[in-house]
Request: fold
Amino acid sequence: MFSFIGLQTTEVIVGDRAVVDVSLALDVTQLSEVVVTALGIESDVTKLGSATSKIGGSSAKESGETGVIQGLAGKASGVLVQKTAGDPGAGAYIQIRGQSTITSSVQPLIVVDGVPMFNTTAGSNVGGVIEQSRMNDLNPNDIESVQILKGASAAALWGSRAANGVMVITTKKGKKGVGKKFSVVYGATYSVDKISYKHDLQTKFGQGSNGIYSPVNANAYGDKIEDRSGGADGVVNTPGAPYFESISGKKYYEITAKNDRTNYEQSNFDQVFQDGHFLEQNISLSGASESSSIFASFSNLDQEGIIVGNSDYKRSTFRINGSNKLSDQVNLKTNFSYAKVKSNRIQQGSNTAGLYLGFLRTPSDFDNRDYKGTYYNAAGIPAFNRQRSYRRYLGNSLNPIYNNPGWTVNEQKNPTEVDRFLGNLELEVKPTSWLTLIARPGVDFYEDRRQSIFPIGSAANSGNGTATEQYLSERQFNVDMFGIANFKLTDHILGTGVLGANFNERTQHNDGFTYQNFILDLPISNATNATNENTFPFDFESVQRTSAGYGTLNLGYDELLYLNATLRVENASTFGSGAQSTFAYPSVDVAFNFNQLGALKNSRVLSAGKLRAAYGEVGIQPIPYSTLDDYVVAVYAEGWGPAVSAAGYSGSYGRSVIKGNRSLEPERKKEIEFGTDLSFFENRLSLNATYYTNETTGALFNVAIAPTTGYANTYGNAASLENKGIELDLNATVLKLGDFTWDINANVSQNRNKVTSLSGTESLFLAGFTGTSSRAVVGQPVGVLWGGRWDRDAAGKLILDENGFPTQALDEGILGDPNPDWRGGLGSTFRYKGFRLYALFETFQGGDIWAGTHGALYNFGRTQQSANEVTLSAAEAATIVNATGAPVTSFGTDNGNGTFTFRGNIADFGGGKVALNQAWYQGLGGGFGPVGEQFIVDGSWTRLRELTLGYTLNGEAFRSATKLTAIDFTLTGRNLAIWAPSKDIIGVDPETNLTGPTNGRGLEYFNNPGTQSFLFSVQITY
Amino acid sequence: MKKIFKYLLLALIALNISACESFIDDMEVDPNNPGDATAARMIEGVMVADMFVHTGDLNRLAGMWMGYFTGADRQYLTLDTWGGSVAADYNNTWGNIYTGVVAQARIVQEKASTENNLRLRGVAKILEAHALGTTAQLWGDVPNTEANNIDEFPNPAYESQASVYASLQTLLNSALADLAGVGSIPNDIFYGGSVANWSAFAHSLKARYFVHTGDFANAETEAALGITTLSEELWAPFGSTFGATFNPYYDFMVYNRPGYMGADGAYAAELLDPYDLSGSGRSRSNPKTNEEARFNWNYLPYYEIYAAGYEPNYLNDFDWAEPNGKFGLEFPLYTAGESLLIIAEARIRANDVAGAIAAYNNYRTYLENGGGGFHDIASAYDYAFQYDPYVLADFQAGGMVNHGQASVAEAILFEIMEERYVSMVGELEAFSDWRRSDNLIGVPVKFGTSIPERFLYPQVEINTNPNVPSPLPDFSTPTPVNQ
Reply:
């Protein structure tokens, strides 16, 4: 069980430790004895004056997630981890202690074995594919622990890279086996993944508009399906009539009478969704002698997504971590890992060639299965490889308008292939007993080769075919050189000092080309398949460098009081030449272990007690090349898509609309935190509580300038914002009866964020659409949902039009807040002999979400609510009007008995009853109208994030019989239950975001669905 | 302690600076973008911006509101009338006007002055005047002299519409003087470097702005000096590359937003349609006039490719192997027809009935002889067109072009304004006509009881410039020239 190691007076360097208790790793070990500091140096938790959370590697692994970060969800206070979608390899959004910047990345700095690692998610937008996070390149099986440095004080040594906190990841090191010089571990996990939640769509009414069937109409406002005669449709199949012949051989003719009552909802679903699955295998070897250690691993993950067709994720990794003590004074260590990732993705979101857009809009009386074939016109001339979609059911046009989902998943290709290399070398010299010198160069490099091919006949580029191929790469060199000195001032005061320097260079390349209007009707990856006129190359490169000197001083008075101070002095290439060149980032913290005071020292109740206080400053660098005016190719665009470019003529440049800013500085975040760590009854119960408050000043954003000045904006240090919050962690062994133990660990966090200044900008767009977006607004939390509202009078009452319907307000405003009021996690572990049962509940309460899909589906007549039927008396039907002022008698069905029935709903906005029908849902009352307010819903959820049943065979008899050390069996369920008040309206797992891990939150618009998983894994240890 | 800290800080700074000053130096220059460009390599960008401003989202909005087009799907169902339009709808094109045309044109003027290329400077002035004139026309009071000078005027003042028009006349005069000077016009996608054509365009803009301000005498003089022949006409040279040279109308209706905008029940289509497909009975063809070719050039007769009913004719040669419709490829920015109609209107406003009829017949001859844009499609499909001269009797009570007007002059003005309406389908200048004539020709009002008198000041300007007029005028407030 948990136990504190006795207080050590010397510090050890990562990698020297021989054994880490594996069973302990399952839990969030707030109590764990050893913590890793920002420099990758291990320290004792009692010495720290700031809050950190440490999570064991196996905990992330057993979560059933294929990425390290995703497996941390719900396990630590103050840390929000949200997967962006259920697609294989999907990235995750991490937010520590609220959002402390507005437009810069909010993702924490990831440091692996002392070297920063890219956590990039490149290319997330309102359309396109779900992109991977480069964090996913780490093999979760290789992780020893993840230490989350939440506060500015703990992270300050990373200066302008640390404003969002630092995740210090330590990989496994070689160690001896149980009774052996080495051990071998083989593990295999098989997972079955299912769509976790579906949109609930109406099947009562067919394709068409105003109650009339039309086989080319965009909407499902057609005739009532049960009123059809049944049987085959009336078609024109006379010789010479145009028709479509699908690749299955089925022929489709022009429909003249819709008789068929078949509901294709299920077969259309089965066409594109399946049970996803993955198999992950991992083998590792670990060994150690007196002077050296080695850890080697190989893993392979092969995943098929829940979407049929081109949705998969394959990852192979290998790693070697070694150390060798060359002499008593010299120790050499190296960590090296390589990952190969291949994945196919599916187009999603606001994208006519995306999956859900075409899928959810397809009326239930249209059969999507025959999506491809040949169109024969009246002259009998064939057009091959035509797409058949619900708006072009004969494939008689190159452009299907919206893709048939079958085409989206099978014909379009969006592969990515990544090579990732991460390695470092650490030379440690101990010239004397009190001094250690360390040099640690490291490199992180990846190349991501992406393609996105829309064959001829896709909805993109009007059906003429388009493709983009790009080569993204990032490289990071990092060198740390520092010395650690231990000293003794008096018998009571011991100290440690560190002095060092850090050099860091990051380069980024994004080169590629788009080619369109294919010459051959082949989806080949080759730019010669388009004319020069239709080929558009692009290239981007950037280099940014940071250099810093740093020092730390740790003083301890007995074991009672610790004082830690750090200072980083930093300079970076991204700062403007007009700004001061050097910035200092100090931190100081105090830890008072009051349990060491006389009377408490041997208390049987209090095992440990600490009060702590910390202050720190951290920052965020500006993006490179923002200090000077640029000239750019003269390209002009408007919001609806059309654009012109001088590159299409003889080429011309214009001054960029972004004004260069010579006085750019880093954003600065200052944070104070207070906390206490208490544990009782020999650590059977522990409680950690932290209060923090921080303020970011000089937050960077593109400050809007009046366009009449000739510029549209300038990138500047113009915003400020603050966060305040509390974090509580509770760990307890509730019951311990013989072999049975019951542990719980719970965490609760609350954060209040507020933008305090935007230098006059009323609202700043972060992500989303012209209609509804996520923004920064002064006095509001970052990311508030913004858009069109109903017009209200001073008393807040809706202002109605002459027909009794609400009207739109002239100006836009705040619609909701996607940030949660509070979050929590509750883990519970039961152990009995070799069995263990772990359940993790996570809750997210009070955040809003924009149910954009639901709004759009009103417009198309696909929501259940839009398919209600209302019967009114003759008197009511004559007086109740719809949005255009027409009485129900004019559009309802006369039932012949004086009553009228219409499709829609009756509502009363305060001016008496009105009829909501197609006219309303396609105007102000639908998702394409300007009033986003009506589709903001409560995005709260509670979920059974994880349920794990494990059994370990490692008894004496077993070991001697098999020569094995242990076999572990684990059954895991992920997202087995989701409770969410608005999930019927949202239609997907509410843990979703259209724009991925960007700063804009709470947006849902034809997002690909989330998943739930059932996993079985076995691990054999020799 | 404080001292120790101080020494430590100094040591760290020394360590940092000595070791690595050069490590981070000289990295300010963006390797991805140049820091400057020559006037010759900027002028084409100004033209691209200028033609985009005059063919983009503003044209579609005005076009839907005044009976040229019909919002048919999603957001365009709401934007079909000004009742569904908010300030944010104007951000993009307003930005393109000031940052794309005005700012860049003024930079070109400075650079061209340094290079002593007066003709290039003149062209930049004309482009600036083209965009600013449109802006003043649509919004009324707008920034002008304080625009594009952020160091001195971070919040450019809004000048009165009258003074903007006056300064544009001056600007165009100085442009004409520049064109008479030395230099050349490189990379000219509008006129291939023709000084004569640029001079004609400058005079024509002067004529147009005199019309806006109601100075018809000067308008007639300038119109006569302006674009009066087919070879002088200015057509935005759109091409066949998506995302680069597409006509924005084509881009919008076929590539980016098919189905959003058609012309079902559009008043202009019904006026032009000789087949009366919608059954409105509004065809303006008469014994002397046959609109078949012009109708087919402007509209598709119920092909219903993306939207029901009429659709604007976006067909073209490169994608559809069809003769170019008005919205498929090149698009008129200033035609000889506009000049000829200005002359006719100026005369009738001066009560010169005979002169007006002669001028108007002169315009009809232009339509017969290659003007009006529809001749290619007419010859490809043998569509008929006929614009015989009118005589006085035709405008008198009971005449074929008297629609109940009390006087001949009124009938002539009505005919001229209606002709302007159907000859400028989808052009912003028609939106000016509609408002300055207070909907003389009776286009059905789609929302409320009166026509929209302006565009709304853009949200981005409201948010950032405290000098934006207050209180904000709404659609019911005419711009000063129309008050």
